[in-house]
Amino acid sequence: MSEIPDLSKEKSIRDVLNRLKWDPQFDFGKVEVVYVDRVAGKGFSSLSGEEIEDVGHKFIFLVGDVMIPMHRVVEVRYKGKTVWSRFDE
C-alpha cells in the first residue's frame, strides 16, 4: 500500500476521491474529507472515507441520506497528510 499518494494528475475533488476509492493500492477508510459545515455552525467538519457511499459530480453521498456539496470541500487527507487542498488551486 502506498503511503502518500501522488494525485497531482487528478484535476478535481471527484477525481481525487474516486482514485482513492477505486485504486486497490489505497485504503479508502484512511481518507478524511474536510468541508465547510453550515449546518452545525462550527466552521469546518470532517468525515472519513468509511462514511462515503458514493462520489457524484456535485455531491458526496454519505450513509444515512446525507449529501455534502463538492463546493464545500476544502481538503482531502490520506493517512493524515493533505493530498488535495482548495487553497492550493
Structure in words:
The protein has 89 residues and is mainly beta. The protein has a single domain, classed as SH3 type barrels (Roll), CATH 2.30.30. The protein contains 1 helix and 7 strands; from the N terminus they run H-E-E-E-E-E-E-E. It has one helix spanning 13-22, and strands at 31-37, 43-48, 52-55, 59-62, 66-69, 73-78, 81-85. It has a 4-stranded antiparallel sheet, with helices on one face. A 3-stranded antiparallel sheet has the order 3-4-5, covered by helices on one side. Strand 3 (52-55) and strand 4 (59-62) form a beta hairpin.
Q: What's the SSE blueprint?
A:
Elements: H1 13-22, E1 31-37, E2 43-48, E3 52-55, E4 59-62, E5 66-69, E6 73-78, E7 81-85
Antiparallel strand pairs: 1-2, 1-6, 3-4, 4-5, 6-7
Short note summarizing the structure:
The protein is mostly beta strands and 89 residues long.
Supply database-style keywords.
89 residues; SH3 type barrels; three-stranded antiparallel sheet; 7 strands; 11% helix; globular
Structural class: mainly beta
Would you give the CATH topology?
Answer: SH3 type barrels
In the CATH hierarchy, what is the class?
Mainly Beta
User: Which of globular, elongated, flat, extended, rod-shaped describes the shape?
Assistant: globular
Rounded to the nearest angstrom, the distance between the terminal CA atoms is 27 Å
For the biggest β-sheet, the strand order reads 2-1-6-7
Largest beta-sheet details: 4 strands, antiparallel
Just name the CATH architecture: Roll
Q: Please estimate the helix content.
A: 10-25%
- What is the number of strand segments? 7
Radius of gyration: 12 Å
